[in-house]
């Protein structure tokens, strides 16, 4: 008898954004005339940068001619893209990495979700609360947790991120093995400073732990003194992996390209305590279960690093940051306590009430979609996440509607 | 201490095609003047059909304009593609399926590799020998096998495919829970007939087992009496999942698009024997760990079903089948026993000697790359797989070189 993975049963309801999408669809069905403004899922709305569009077209023309056609590419990505990433995204300060430490993929969600496969199922996992649900759900599916009780999965070490610690996770007072960090944070929009990251790297080194550092929103940081990569921290190459994405940086949410940096110095351990290269494990995982990213997509991503591309990407992120500023100001004026939105497209708002009720109120009475904070963890209760990913006009309109409420 | 997934250690050497690629690179380095002809990995060489190129360009233009830009699409794929697949690939005979039973992905390798996550780790798995290595390796990584000994992983039920059973796997005489079948087969190029598939569906129904049916090469079948889908077999919808791909059909190996059909009637069981929808589990897996396929890629794939697209796809597969005919004839004339290549781009050749030695001889003395059969399993020893994916000119040249040897 084909028996199911029993751990799937432990998962709480559907995936957060899928649930929201269904509620929004139901509202739209019931109110076909309503002009819904989506500040929920954190999906970009502005077109791809022209440099990326041009490169995309060129690569497709290559795919149409026998002389230039490309079939299977390397599972780990083309050298042209890995090299430009290593140079332009990491060739500064102490963050140096090698091109062959870069693995191209079709999304950070996939990489964040799949990376845990490399490790034993009985390790201790630490996850911020609140945080992007994928870290937790994929560990539940892999059997690293007990059941869900009182808002928490048994066996997970939750790292509370609240006003008390400026929404920055503090190192736990017990050893853990696998640590998820996300900066700029989703959902709180806060950025870990150098001191905070140094504490984590030091903790990981002392505990032979591994940090999975999700930097999908790094291109929104506008302050040089804030770390842009965990690899700026001394000693991080041995204990950290970093996820990055073209999704929010260059509008690739529908085009799909991301990458993960796994330094050669980064080690995990077998049952005898002997070190094993995490990069080699990931290479083996990717060559076995993945076949690389679409060639034209990789060419389009490469173009984001050209002179024109970089300028256009900067304009794009500036545009969303201006939206974020408008949202921050409007929500503050409404009397809410607000963090995030300065080096991040997300604004984290303390609603002072039940967040799903607040979500429904904004949907029903203002036709504005947000994300209820409790979907990101217990400590998100009472908060909503507002995303700056929309047109200027829609953001201004949405804020006016909310102010009226 | 961050401990590794101990099952990775059981894997035998590197992934087959990765190993071959390294040997070929070493040969090319040592012989820079050699004109290597690749009949190895089974990678297409002809450009994308013009209909797919046009649709690709149009979709990119949409991504360049704010009015038509699309961000995140559905994890399970756009309705436009799921609908045309259900209609054109399955709207015939008994093989009817619903569009919402179709899940679009970036590759059959990913789907074949990831699907096993839905099931318990202590189920019994049956895998043909020889076969595409991904089925086995991903089950090893998940911990469903013991160690590798005498050419076999302990705990796997191997289904021998040899001249004795016309290279078609026979149902085992013991119950198993998860069964991998591949038709047209990779590597043997043989196609399961209706009777053989009926036996498997009947076996699965009697044992509450699930069949994962890999039909990535279905578009090469040129005989109507041969099943094109397992869903043509009565009762299969309850016990089978089917994988298909645009890779070999429309030259998408570098463009990346595939799909998996999971009928709503298909059930697995919890520890109490209660049925659980496999489609719901896969939906949950995909919404949690995957973010959908690039929008322009899905538009390009859709175009393969247009009138022009279908004609061009047919020309493409005809072209490779003509290559296969040439290879079959040449190798038969050299005195080898040969199967496959009639409804498949693969020709399976009994070399009558060690297959890695034969592989090396063809590489070193004819600069022709093939795939050693033992890479696909014990019963592949002594065989090589020759792929018809190359230009006519190269295939003719390669056969001439081999004949000379």
Produce a short descriptive summary:
With 405 residues, chain A is α/β, with parallel strands linked by helices.
Describe the protein:
The structure is a homodimer of 405-residue chains. Chain A is an alpha/beta fold and 405 residues long. Chain A has 2 domains: 6-47 and 308-404, Aspartate Aminotransferase, domain 1, CATH 3.90.1150.10; 53-306, Type I PLP-dependent aspartate aminotransferase-like (Major domain) (Aspartate Aminotransferase, domain 2, 3-Layer(aba) Sandwich), CATH 3.40.640.10. In chain A, 37% of the residues lie in helices and 16% in strands. In chain A, the strands form 5 sheets. A 7-stranded mixed β-sheet of chain A has the order 2-10-9-8-7-3-6, sandwiched between helices. In chain A, strands 13-14-17-16 form a 4-stranded antiparallel β-sheet. In chain A, α6 (194-207) links the parallel β7 (178-182) and β8 (210-214). The first copy, chain A, is globular, with a radius of gyration of 21 Å. Chain A starts with 15 loop residues before the first helix and ends with a helix. The mean pLDDT of chain A is 96. Chains A and B meet through α2, α4, α5, α8 and α9 of A and α2, α4, α5, α8 and α9 of B.
């Amino acid at each position: 008898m084909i028996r199911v993975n029993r751990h799937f049963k432990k998962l709480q309801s559907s995936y957060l954004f899928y649930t929201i999408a269904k509620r929004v669809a139901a509202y739209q069905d019931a109110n076909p005339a309503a002009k819904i403004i989506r500040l929920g899922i954190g999906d970009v709305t502005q077109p791809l940068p022209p440099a990326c569009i041009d490169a995309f077209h060129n690569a497709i023309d290559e795919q149409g001619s026998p002389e230039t056609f490309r079939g299977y590419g390397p599972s780990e990505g083309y050298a042209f893209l890995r090299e430009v990433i290593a140079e332009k995204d990491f060739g500064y300060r102490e963050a140096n990495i090698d091109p062959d430490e870069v693995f191209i993929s079709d999304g950070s969600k996939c990489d964040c979700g799949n990376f845990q496969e490399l490790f034993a199922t009985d390790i201790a996992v630490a996850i911020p609360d609140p945080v992007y649900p994928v870290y937790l759900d994929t560990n539940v599916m892999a059997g690293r947790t007990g059941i869900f009780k009182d808002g928490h999965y048994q066996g997970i070490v939750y790292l509370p991120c609240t006003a008390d610690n400026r929404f920055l996770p503090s190192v736990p007072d017990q050893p853990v093995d696998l640590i998820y960090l996300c900066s700029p944070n989703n959902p709180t929009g806060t950025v870990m400073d150098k001191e905070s990251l140094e504490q984590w790297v030091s903790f990981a080194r002392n505990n032979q732990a591994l940090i999975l550092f999700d930097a999908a929103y790094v291109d929104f940081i506008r302050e040089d003194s804030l770390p842009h990569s965990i690899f700026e921290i001394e000693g991080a190459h041995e204990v950290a992996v970093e996820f990055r994405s073209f999704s929010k940086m260059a509008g690739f949410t529908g085009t799909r390209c991301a990458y993960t940096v796994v330094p050669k110095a980064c080690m995990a351990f077998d049952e005898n305590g002997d070190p094993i290269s995490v990069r080699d494990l990931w290479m083996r995982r990717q060559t076995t279960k993945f076949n690389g990213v679409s060639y034209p997509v990789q060419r389009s991503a490469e173009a984001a690093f050209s002179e024109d591309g970089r300028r256009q990407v900067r304009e794009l992120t500036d545009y969303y940051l201006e939206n974020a500023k408008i949202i921050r100001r409007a929500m503050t004026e409404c009397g809410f306590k607000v963090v995030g939105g300065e080096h991040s497209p997300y604004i984290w708002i303390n609603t002072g009430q039940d967040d799903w009720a607040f979500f429904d109120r904004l949907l029903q009475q203002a036709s504005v979609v947000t994300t209820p904070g409790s979907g990101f963890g217990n400590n998100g209760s009472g908060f909503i996440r507002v995303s700056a990913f929309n047109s200027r006009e829609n953001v201004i309109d949405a804020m006016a509607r909310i102010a009226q409420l």
